């Protein structure tokens, strides 16, 4: 780092040790410029919480917590239309659910359930419906895919080789 004129921020530095199943757990620590950095079970990188088992449990715990806080703040607004509520929810909550969600592609449905519950609560908030209202018609009318489908869906097009024509849409 010194040769490339980079400086390490020791306040934000974390050590994440990902052991193989059969390796014993070590109390690892490293010392950088006189500061000891101990190993932790999870570390945040670009807003994603990675844990030492790579099962994303910490990330899935943190995302609904922040989304619930946002939903609560949106709910307490007194004068809002359905459209303005939908815009707020899509901007603040749905974007958090979608951020780096392709990392969750290999997880089972039971692991993704907390994220789906947040999306259900967001749809009920948009239409100002009670807690136990059926959510499937709400998701359809909002044109929102369920969380598991959002993880699998890729909205960006695949790259076309140079020289081939791009497909055109028929009207």
Explain this structure:
This is Reverse transcriptase. It comes from Synaphobranchus kaupii. This protein is α+β, with helices and mostly antiparallel strands. The protein folds into 2 domains: 1-40, no CATH class; 54-152, no CATH class. Helix content is 40%, strand content 12%. The chain is built from 5 helices and 5 strands; from the N terminus they run E-E-E-E-E-H-H-H-H-H. It has helices spanning 57-75, 82-98, 109-127, 136-142, 147-152; strands at 15-16, 29-32, 35-40, 42-45, 48-51. A 3-stranded mixed beta sheet has the order 1-3-2, with no helix packed on it. A two-stranded antiparallel sheet has the order 4-5. Strand 4 and strand 5 (48-51) form a beta hairpin. Helix 1 (57-75) packs antiparallel against helix 2, helix 1 runs parallel beside helix 3 (109-127) and helix 2 (82-98) runs antiparallel to helix 3 (109-127). The longest helix has 19 residues, at 57-75. Residues 157-167 have low confidence and may be disordered.
